[in-house]
Design goal:
- It is built from 59 helices and two strands.
- The chain has 1227 residues and is mainly α.
Length: 1227
């Protein structure tokens, strides 16, 4: 009885230990405390260690060999706490457990884990202050093993020695520890290793009286500390060797840096004499290790740098360039992580000191590689104060316009490269500064983009310094930057600010910018326009424009979004673009004035046609803007469309739909497409122009390659025969261009050339040319052929242009969809969007367009609020549903069918939803509306029911089942009428299995709790009876040979759904479950789970045993099995018994002989084991090893630590040993 109780206690203790290893890091202390309380309750007041406590200590020590997770650390800390709390745990017992674990894990885990587990166990003893209680013999053994350890545990051994030196008393250190270290300490600086210097520093700090003579004789003759300026060269050499450690994390690094701090040494001097030589030295196996070591040192000396001079001395040009380059290059993860940590440390340290922040910015910006340091540098900028950001922004703006700045004065990079980088920096900082700073940046960039400062003026912002002469491309870069910043302002959403307030603040910034521009145009004494030829037009137009903007701004509502927001944005942005494209913008403004005037009329006096007219003109204008390559125009168009969604009419929607349906044949009729390409190129950003030029060059190279290939093909054709040339089809356009290029040499006409009778005359009338004339003809002919090639390229460009235009139109459609207008607006987009999705599936070039259309359609179908206009003709939506159903028949792709199903579900929701009061219609009576809504619901059910019946009767042109699943699962109670045709098909013996499967699936969709509550208990009971009968009739005919997985899955799922809704109802009887258990191995996993859950009270068939039962049965059969005659013949000459010890003597390399080789009884096996123990006291047999392994639950984890190579070697060795054993046994 006592043995049973001890076994239970050990199992409970093992569970608690394993549970401790699995807890989260932040809960480890709590779990350790609970375990200690458990040990305390088990130990009681016993003076000797209890069985449970001893078992837990052994489990902890065994867990030190584990390499998975943080088991080793957790077990070491918990064991240390146990040793401190319970003095009854003798030190000798712990030492014996450590050595036993070290021996028992031989050939089970790798040597590294064994050695680490042993050293960690010793460190745990030392930390628990058990060093004095260790025996002298064990101390010496421990010291010898730690000092003369293997290289892979050198750092850990040094850490353990540090703990021992710190814990040992002075006399104990002098007598027991120092003799083991004297040989190393007497060598001095010569070939000193990091471990030796570490132990020396620790010993000199804690036992200075014992170390005085040694240090003075072999290390430091004067009285100064070992870590001093005169020893920096040796220290740098020794620290450089730490780079071979794991990420340079050697205890010597922290120790040396702590001594630098304690001795109040100059941190900058230490970095220059120690840190930089480490980074640039050739000591160490890997360059990454030296970099990590140097960065680690730099991180730890940062807190001691408290002035700008010290920061500039540390972050010099070389180090800053190195950091910038490392962040951009594809270096190892550890180095990049260390650099990012360094940047974070610099940020954290410089947060409270704005001067240091600015100095760090100067050091990093002036480095040679600062252009590569964008992301990490931006992270640092985000942490800096607003004052520092403002000062840095001022320097950037000065650099952009050519004013003196420390950015250009201390940098060797070209000015153009610096300005491009500054433009990117402005773009980033613009998203972090407040509205006032945003306005200042926009004013500055706009001023220097289009104006020259003639005279200084303090009244006009940013006119304090005369502007230098800027080149055209520099002003272009400034104007592009200004318009990009405006686009960023319009799309910026400040965190924690409501959307309406955010929009009003941004419009206020643009309004203040417009006021500033008007002030510049009026101050002709101080500034002048760069484009003097259009200055009068701009001034005249701006005067009228500013009055309109002022009236809109004062009347604008701040409580809701109205059309005033849209017109203010349009007028301001069109006015700003007057300075880039004066003529076209003037025409746009004339239309805009008319639209604004009509929109401001009162509803009583305004006709509906007038309202439709102005919104239609605005939509045409927006379509023209999205066709423009200017990014700002596209952003404005999308924003304005968001503001005007409530005013859209059917004509406006049709304009958007026509734009989505555009093809190359009617491209010239498209709104905005008829513009000249040259005009578009002028409006493109500088980046877009460069990109276009690169694309054109690539296209030309490809065309050249194609032309070369064509020439080669022509040569081959010439060799094959001349007759093939007559079949060539030469375009008429090419003929005309070649004739025009040849002139008189082209001949009189094609007819003359084709006439065989006139060949002699043509030969006589050939025109002879000089070499110079032939060269001219070559150039003309080359240009003629090049124009044809350019025509092909233009077709590709037009196709790509059309795709990009449709993508931008989809942005407008998305804005309409997200603006939540009435659903009469949105349903018109469904078919065009589906057409684009199909187009993207058919053609790879349209794939992006199709994906964009699918995203817009998904956004439309996810709308929860149904804003149905009472003017909507819902009967017309049934035709749309029919088209959607027909679409699934034409393209039966599963993903597309699902998309169409969602769209149809959205349309049906609109049909069945309540109408809202139309803003353009009179009120309607609610009673009629309610009645009409119920009629529409019944009509929807009839339509879906008819389609499902067509599917179940397998008529031609039926929809896919996935389409109906989407409808039924969203409104199961609505489609309850479908149970009759589905049940009819399920009970029909002549119906195909596929149709029965779909009928069962449809029934499963509509079987919900909502459905049961709606139809009533009586009708639901009748349905369950029918369903039970149908399922039983189908299951009783199931056999392993006659089985359909899909049908069985649906039947099981249907029956379980009904039973789970109403537990009192039992659909699947025991008879059915027994049949299903017989074929459960051949059906899907989901159905097997249901069957297992419902058949817990039933016995499994003999062929359905679990894997564990099968394995156990197989083992029993193997034990009772008699050896075959062939085996008896082979092993007839061998002795009756052969111990494992004898086998190992026959072959030293062999491990064990399987017990299955000799069929022995249990008594004989026990006798053999006892004999092996007597014959082999020192060597551990494999049987004993297996017993010790059985006690250790972490063996499975330890075995996984073997590398693949070691496993392969072990397999090969086992094969050789096995063959040798067979030879020995057969002898």
């Amino acid at each position: 009885m006592g043995t049973v109780n001890e076994t239970k206690l050990k199992l409970e203790a093992s569970k608690r230990v394993e549970r401790l290893a699995k807890v989260a890091f932040n809960e480890q202390n709590k779990a350790t405390s609970e375990l200690i309380e458990y040990v305390k309750s088990q130990q009681g007041h016993q003076p000797q260690i209890s069985t449970t406590t001893a078992h837990i200590v052994k489990k902890f020590i065994q867990g030190l060999s584990a390499i998975k997770g943080n088991k080793r650390v957790v077990f070491s800390a918990s064991l240390c706490q146990l040793l401190k709390k319970f003095e009854c745990i003798e030190t000798s017992f712990v030492c014996s457990c450590i050595e036993e674990n070290y021996a028992s894990t031989f050939q089970v885990v790798d040597n590294v884990s064994r050695d680490i587990a042993r050293i960690v166990g010793w460190m745990t003893l030392v930390k628990a202050q058990r060093w004095p209680s260790l025996s002298l013999e064990y101390r010496n053994q421990m010291l010898r093993n730690l000092i003369h350890c293997k290289p892979y545990v050198q750092v850990l051994s040094t850490t353990a020695m540090m703990e021992i030196i710190q814990q040992a008393p002075c006399d104990d250190f002098k007598q027991a520890i120092l003799p083991h270290l004297m040989k190393q300490f007497n060598i001095g600086w010569e070939n000193c290793t990091p471990d030796r210097l570490t132990l020396l520093l620790v010993a000199n700090k804690h036992h200075s009286s014992a170390m005085v003579q040694i240090v003075k004789k072999h290390w430091q003759k004067d009285q100064e500390d070992l870590v001093s300026e005169q020893n920096y060269p040796m220290i740098a050499d020794i620290l450089g060797k730490c780079s071979t450690c794991n990420n340079g994390m050697h205890p010597l690094v922290d120790m040396v840096l702590s001594r630098v701090t304690e001795n109040s040494l100059d941190a900058v001097n230490f970095w220059k004499n120690v840190g930089i030589p480490i980074v640039t030295s050739k000591i160490g196996r890997s360059k990454a290790g030296k970099l990590l070591l140097g960065l680690n040192i730099l991180q730890q000396i940062l807190p001691h740098i408290n002035t700008t001079d010290m920061m500039s001395a540390v972050l010099d040009q070389e180090l800053s360039s190195f950091i910038s380059a490392c962040c951009a290059l594809n270096i190892d993860k550890d180095t990049k992580k260390s650099i990012l940590t360094l940047v974070g440390k610099i940020t954290q340290f410089a947060v409270e000191n704005e001067e240091v922040q600015l100095e760090v910015i100067k050091c990093l910006v002036n480095s040679a590689q600062s252009s590569l340091f964008n992301n990490e540098f931006n992270l640092f900028l985000k942490q800096t104060s607003s004052t520092v950001q403002s000062e840095y922004m001022d320097e950037i703006l000065k650099t952009l316009v050519g004013h003196p700045s420390w950015i250009t004065s201390n940098s060797d990079r070209p000015v153009g490269v610096i300005k491009q980088w500054c433009s990117k920096q402005v773009n980033y900082l613009f998203s972090t500064v407040d509205s006032t700073c945003c306005l200042s940046i926009l004013q500055f960039t706009f001023l220097h983009s289009f104006f020259n400062i003639k005279q200084k003026s303090k009244k006009i912002p940013h006119c304090i310094v005369l502007s230098s002469e800027l080149e055209h491309h520099e002003r272009k870069m400034l104007s592009d930057t200004c318009f990009k910043l405006i686009s960023k302002l319009l799309t910026r959403q400040d965190i924690g600010v409501p959307k309406l307030r955010n929009m009003n603040e941004h419009l206020d910034v643009l309004y203040q910018l417009a006021v500033y521009v008007g002030k510049l145009l009026e101050s002709t004494k101080y500034v002048e326009l760069v484009k003097s030829d259009v200055s009068e037009q701009i001034v005249k137009e701006w005067k009228k424009l500013s009055e309109t903007i002022l009236s809109i701004h004062t009347k604008k509502s701040l409580d809701e979004i109205t059309d005033s927001h849209a017109f203010e944005l349009l007028f301001i942005c069109c006015g700003l673009q007057l300075f880039t494209d004066t003529d076209n913008v003037q025409e746009t403004l004339q239309d805009l004035y008319v639209c604004y005037k009509k929109s401001t009329k009162k509803r009583k006096s305004a006709a509906s046609l007038d309202e439709a007219a102005w919104i239609d003109v605005i939509v045409e204008m927006l379509l023209s803007m999205v066709f423009n390559d200017n990014f700002l125009s596209r952003v404005i168009a999308k924003q304005v469309m968001t503001y005007l969604t409530d005013h859209l009419t059917s004509t406006s929607i049709q304009l958007l739909i026509d734009a989505l349906k555009q093809t190359r044949s009617n491209e010239s009729k498209m709104v905005g497409v008829g513009d000249d390409d040259d005009d578009d190129d002028d409006e493109m950003n500088s980046d877009d122009e460069n990109g276009a030029m690169e694309v054109d060059e690539e296209d030309e190279e490809e065309d050249d390659d194609d032309s070369d290939d064509d020439d080669d093909n022509d040569d081959d054709n010439d060799d094959s025969g001349i007759e093939e040339e007559a079949d060539l089809d030469i375009p008429e356009m090419l003929k005309q261009k070649v004739k025009a290029a040849l002139g008189d040499a082209a001949g009189a006409s094609d007819d003359d050339d084709d006439d065989d009778d006139d060949n002699d005359k043509d030969e006589e009338s050939d025109v002879e040319f000089s070499d110079s004339e032939m060269m001219k003809l070559d150039d003309v002919l080359a240009s003629a052929f090049k124009s044809m090639r350019k025509g092909k390229k233009t077709e590709k460009q037009q196709e790509q242009q059309l795709i990009s235009f449709k993508t931008r139109v989809l942005d407008l459609v998305e804005a309409v969809v997200k603006g939540c207008p009435t659903n009469v607006t949105c349903t018109s987009f469904i078919m065009p969007l589906l057409d684009l999705i199909v187009q993207g599936m058919k053609k790879d070039s349209d794939m992006v367009l199709g994906n964009k259309a699918e995203n817009v359609l998904n956004s439309l179908c996810k709308q929860k609020q149904m804003n149905v206009d009472s003017s909507l003709d819902k009967d017309s939506l049934f035709e749309l549903c029919e088209k959607l159903m027909d679409y699934t028949r034409q393209i039966p792709i599963p993903s597309f069918v699902q998309t169409v199903g969602k769209a149809c579900l959205y349309v049906l929701k609109i049909i069945m939803s309540e109408d809202i009061l139309s803003p353009r219609r009179s009120r309607s009576k609610p009673s009629k509306k309610a009645k009409k809504t119920e009629d529409y619901k019944q009509k929807v059910v009839t339509m879906v029911k008819t389609a499902v019946i067509n599917l179940l009767e397998h008529k031609r042109g039926h929809c896919k089942p996935a389409f109906f699943h989407i409808l039924l699962t969203n409104h199961p109670a609505l489609y309850w009428e479908l149970n009759e045709p589905c049940m009819k098909t399920l009970c029909d013996s002549d119906a195909k299995v596929y149709l029965r499967t779909q009928a069962a699936a449809f029934l499963g969709d509509i079987v919900t709790k909502e459905t049961g509550e709606r139809i009533g208990k009586e009708e639901w009971d009748q349905f369950t009876v029918k369903c039970k009968t149908a399922i039983h009739n189908l299951i009783k005919n199931i056999t392993s040979e006659k089985l359909n997985k899909s049908l069985v899955n649906e039947l099981v799922s249907l029956g379980y759904s009904i039973q789970s809704l109403y537990p009192g109802v039992k659909i699947l009887e025991d008879e059915d479950l027994t049949i299903l258990l017989g074929v459960r191995s051949k059906i899907d996993k989901s159905a097997r789970k249901i069957i297992n859950k419902l058949s817990t009270h039933l016995e499994r068939p003999p062929n359905e045993q679990s894997k564990k039962q099968k394995r156990k049965q197989k083992d029993n059969d193997d034990e009772n099995e008699e050896p075959s005659p062939k085996k008896k013949v082979k092993t007839g000459n061998q002795p009756e018994k052969m111990t494992v010890n004898q086998s190992s003597k026959a072959d030293d390399k062999s491990q064990s002989v399987s017990e299955e080789k000799s069929p022995l009884s249990n008594k004989e096996k026990k006798k053999r084991n006892k004999k092996n123990k007597k014959n082999q006291p020192e060597k551990m047999t494999v049987n004993q090893s297996s017993k010790s392994i059985g006690k250790n639950q972490s063996v499975s984890e330890e075995r996984s630590s073997l590398s693949n190579k070691e496993k392969k070697k072990k397999k090969k060795k086992n094969k050789k040993d096995h063959s040798k054993k067979e030879k020995i046994l057969s002898a």
